[in-house]
Design a protein that fits this description.
Rossmann fold; 5-stranded antiparallel β-sheet; 18 strands
């Protein structure tokens, strides 16, 4: 019997010969069995060491004669012993391959009848979205009421043929990655791929369907710049292809195509909104809540964890239920019979792509509610589908208004947040003008950061300089303190008009 207890020194001992396989065997080239061995007669010091391919008959035959001559043993004994060793090594190599595949095969949880029943029961609730948001909170996602539900629904859309994507934006240290990682914990492990660093070429060497309907999580877009192009192609075209040169077994050079199929849902985090414009155009932009209230909620949660007062069992059960909910959702086509009445406000930038995102988000909500919808069949094609309801559109409008507001804004998220904080400060102190030094001190901003903000706000005519008295520093004032509120009202009215048009069309 082959003794493999020492992975670097296998032993095979017969009544005539003692063989040691040094360094083990390789499992990645099944067309050869190349080994380094030492062979000797029992209880003798004369040892022969050699490297050979046991699948190469010429090498083996020469080695048999060499061993027989050097160790003074019959060629038939040596030949038979090597054949036995070859068979044992073959069997052991197949065992190693089987163990490796078993250890690295994708994890798929089989739901019990009770788990499946509980998940479907939850999905049939009439207040599904509010209850989902509540359960996300119980799973340990603190605050971010709108963003967390938006993100969960975007992650859910990976199961559809038109998945959505999102980018979390905010200052350094405000919890972008934390929010993404906590919400991604509610997605089954088998349905997500987490990327910290990955080369662009490596992306093309996934198995053809390995990424299909997967959630791809990028912790920091700054650390994954090399894969942003193939990711954008996956988002837009739902597949990527690369042509490479490859040598076949005979040494002939051939051109082969490496193809990886989508669709995929992509989520990432960054502090640099303007750098990733190509990616952000394809994604929902989720701006992290940087308010003092959110700081207080998170710090209070951290204190409760430290004090051992968080119900970890409840958090675990909430996470598992939401994961099971994801597992029972089945691929099904969604048709929105009201799509022709849905028009975005004129203020939205890049309306074509944003309009597509809006319609896809409504479909994602309908898809999530599939257990509340009657399945219908297209008589011509036989395809099964479910339909969007007006309620789905209303819920989508409530969630997406902040996204559309940001898509309609000429300012980046960081500068908009600063301007709104500036307005709040002036209104609180009943002021109309301000100085840079005052704002830097009161809002605790770096001088370089404030200078950059002011330069952009002046260029976009959101603020203007007020002539100062001689010898005194410049004052500034806000041109229109209600501009953002008015923009939000316009978008809200536009979305309400869509619902009114649907109600009028369906009633007449």
């Amino acid at each position: 019997m082959l003794d493999t207890s020492n992975s670097n020194n296998y032993e095979y001992i017969t009544k005539h010969l003692e063989i040691h396989i040094l360094g083990g065997i390789k499992t990645n080239k099944l067309e050869s069995l190349r080994i380094t061995l030492s062979i000797q007669k029992l209880k003798q010091e004369n040892i022969l060491r050699h490297t050979l391919d046991l699948y190469n008959d010429n090498q083996v035959e020469k080695f048999v004669r060499k061993v027989a001559e050097r160790l003074e043993v019959g060629t038939s004994i040596v030949r038979r012993t090597l054949q036995e060793v070859t068979k044992e090594l073959e069997n052991y190599r197949f065992l190693l391959i089987q163990q490796y595949e078993e250890a690295h095969k994708p994890y798929f949880k089989e739901l019990s009848a009770t788990e499946e029943r509980e998940a479907i029961k939850f999905l049939k609730r009439k207040d599904l979205l509010p209850k989902t948001n509540e359960l996300i909170g119980k799973a340990g996602v603190i605050g971010e009421q709108v963003n967390r539900l938006l993100m969960y629904l975007i992650f859910t859309s990976r199961k559809t043929n038109n998945p959505l994507h999102c980018i979390s934006l905010g200052s350094s240290g405000v919890g972008k990655t934390h929010l993404q990682s906590k919400v991604s914990e509610l997605i089954p492990e088998e349905d997500k791929v987490e990327i910290t660093v990955l080369s662009a070429n490596a992306f093309y060497y996934f198995n053809r369907t390995e990424l299909q309907h997967k959630l791809i999580l990028i912790e920091d877009l700054d650390g994954a710049e090399s894969v942003l192009y193939p990711l954008r192609e996956l988002q837009s075209k739902k597949r990527i292809t690369k042509t490479v040169v490859h040598k076949d077994a005979r040494g002939n050079t051939k051109t082969i195509h490496l193809t990886v199929e989508g669709p995929v849902s992509v989520a990432g985090c960054t502090t640099q909104e303007s750098i990733y414009e190509d990616n952000s155009n394809r994604s929902f932009l989720l701006y992290i809540d940087e308010s003092q209230e959110q700081d207080s909620r998170i710090m209070n949660y951290q204190r409760l964890i430290s004090a051992g007062k968080i119900n970890e069992d409840q958090e675990h059960k909430s996470r598992e239920l939401l994961k099971d909910v994801q597992r029972v959702l089945k691929p099904i086509k969604v048709i929105n019979p009201f799509a022709e009445y849905l028009e975005l406000p004129q203020s939205v930038f890049k309306p074509r792509r944003t309009n597509s995102h809006y319609l896809q988000f409504i479909e994602a909500i309908t898809f999530y509610k599939q257990y509340q919808r009657e399945q219908q069949v297209n008589e011509e094609t036989g395809e099964v589908f479910i339909e969007t309801t007006i309620e789905d559109i209303k819920e989508a409008n409530e969630l997406i208004i902040e996204v559309l507001l940001r898509k309609s804004d000429t300012l980046t998220g960081a500068i908009r947040n600063h301007l709104e904080n500036l307005k709040a400060y002036l209104q609180e102190n009943k002021q109309t003008t301000f100085t840079s030094s005052e704002i830097r001190r009161k809002l605790r901003l770096k001088e370089t950061t404030l200078r950059r903000y002011n330069k952009q706000l002046l260029a976009e005519q959101y603020i203007r300089k007020v002539k100062a008295e001689k010898g005194k520093m410049y004052h500034y004032e806000i041109v229109d303190i209600e501009e953002y509120t008015n923009l939000k009202s316009q978008i809200d009215k536009s979305l309400q008009d869509c619902i009114a048009n649907i109600n009028f069309a369906t009633s007449s």
